[in-house]
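Fold it.
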Amino acid sequence: MRSPLLLIFLLFSFSICAQQPLRGRIVNKQTGDPLAYAKITYGDKEDLSKIDGSFSITLTEEETQLSISYVGFETQNFKVSKNVEFVRIKLTPKIEGLAAVTISSGENKANAIIAKAIARKPKNDPEEKLQKFNFKNYNKFIVDNESAALEMASDSTNLEIGTVINSAASYFSEKVSKFYYSQKEGLKEEVQALKTAGFEKPVYEILSLSVNPFSLYDKDFRIFDTDYAAPLQNSAFRNYSFKILDTTTTSQPAYVIYFKPKRQRAVAGLEGILYLDTETYAIQQAKAQLLGAIKLEIDQDYEYFPEENLWFPKTQKITIRPGNGDQAISVFGGVISAGTLQKKESILNNILAPGKSDPNLFLNVTSTNFDIQLNSNETLETSAEILVNSTAISREDSFWEENRTEAISSQNKFSRQRAERLIKEKEVEEKISFQKSVSTGYIPVGFWDFDLGKFFKFNNYEGIRLGFGGKTNQQLSDIYSLNGYLVYGTKDEVFKYNLGTAIHLNKATETDLKFNYTRDIVETGSFSYLQGKNDFSIVEPRFVNINFFYQHRTLSSGLTQRFGSDFKTELQFSKSDISQTRDYSFLLNGQEFSEYTLSEATFSFLWRPFAKFLKTPNSTNLIEKGYPKFTGEITKGISGVLGSDFDYTKFGLLVEHEIKRLNQSRTEIILEGNYATGDVPLTHLYHALPNSPSREGILSRFSVAGRRSFETMFYNEFFSDKQAMLHIKHQLRPINVHRLIQPELVFISRHAIGDISNPERHSMPFKSLKRGYHEFGIELQKILVGFGLGAAYRYGPYSMPNFNENFAFKFTFHLDI
């Protein structure tokens, strides 16, 4: 009898405690348009409507007096019974008046206030006014289902099965951090404590999610990988319209300014209200919303420091729920924005999938700053933006109790228990590990990660290249890993292979000692940096049409080391035995070399000074790319060492820059220079990444465009020992055909110049680039599932006599993984 009695008691208690909310909508009586942020006064409480005019309040009295007011409309007062569930309130427009507002300059009073707020940003924005400051922060991150509470009360016997089947997601984490700011280094975070419910290993990736913008003073602010135009940026009047709603009557009164996006399809923006101090024009409080496929709500409160006459961010709450609008909005693995789809994979794709329609699902992030120290001299000695303390995941309960700014409620505890259960039941941790491997080009099977790039390829020399390869993962060992591949060409009928190992000397600094033996082919004149390269690609456009390779057998050893977060290096020593796949020989001192040995020492680096990093006790993870990015390499060929035939030196430098704009347009600039001096055979010189087969007819040369290749340059047409290349791509704002179809129009300009010393040393004819090579291209990318079309035209000194030969027609393929 005990369990039934307990169930009856729970049901009775729940029905007694439950309170029926009064829901409603406030609209313009004449037009029917919703009135955003209308003031609702009931008893001694106040609330505001949402941007669609809706509201939900809880009434405790049998009958309550409501007052609904909105600037420019007649105030409406009426009584409502506790039993009423929904009301539709129609306000009548009137001549606008706002006695409390004393600013009279200009036709739009709100614009005048905003202009003053923008002008006073250097005195009001903590990051502009203060040289240094620090504060502690408590953060709670929850993904759960509100219907769970009903399940707990009404069907406790079915709880475990029901929640696993019916819940779309569940996640619970807590974090205590200390933030350090200086105008030189920016805002850095030290994570002092971290709990992620249900995971055996800490989910550090959650720390890189841009959930909590520090303040609305920034030029733009980021929420879940989408940049929004801030309402107080210098171009605010281009992106937002403003309206005065009210003035507060507190000891430090504020103007209540409503802001609404003007160009939502062009520039991502939120709709909300700013409480601006009537004396300093500083932000006291802010609310912002976005309604669409996802309902997003942001509340920010600021604390006043009288000595500095400064309002400082204090608390922030972000809530996300499913919606039913037509805006292209997703949470993890996508964006929260309208008219844009900036793809970015996230570890939480397996926890909260975009497009879920469960109305009870919600995401809630609360963040509170405390122990705020203005003008403090404390600093955080790290080049990473986020540093995870080595004791963060093992903090005692006493530390949490001391640093929590709000207690863990019974509902929080239930959410945490559900997260632990569901993450285990759904094998979320295993899915995350699988997804992370696939995003880098591997499929994990037990202790072995299969390399997706080794299963199938095609080129003119090998024909179909079939095989398999990969590397061991941590299931085998944390100290070392083994790697290798075996492939076979159906046309040349030769097996190629690689065997190697990496000994992990220091995980925190990514210090690895590597040994490899490779027998394979390499494109003649190609150049690849040891650092900064990404071997995995779903499509390798140029590889298909390459027909000039050399064979090599290479034994190499190397040492990788990360210095700080943004500078990674590799030092490699190698010995290669080279032979040719076609009739080529290198002429030197009266001898012809078609087979030769090269011994090389190579130093390569990758420097990302503007990127942002997350540093954990065992790794350094990139969380925001940041540009420009620099990749460099120096190679010394040493004659006489291990039978090496030639002495030479090679240099390479690659600079990549990207400019992203709030209107979703993007400009990419790539500058590369290569230089070789000494006795260098053609196999180890440079080409400019040609990507056009030398066949008659435009359609016969139809192929897939590369990222930084010259689409009209024929294979084996040019070789250089010194060259410079410039690629400029400008992508216009995506064309919004459908939420899933948003093609991008891209204009491309490519240029190359170079030369070669002693061309007579090489037994085959080719051209130099000394007169400069130029081509112009246009692409319509991502027409459907990553596929698009493009065209390029060759002009200038190396243009061909016939239009046909100067023109290239291409497929484009861009797919983000």
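The two ends are 56 Å apart (CA to CA).
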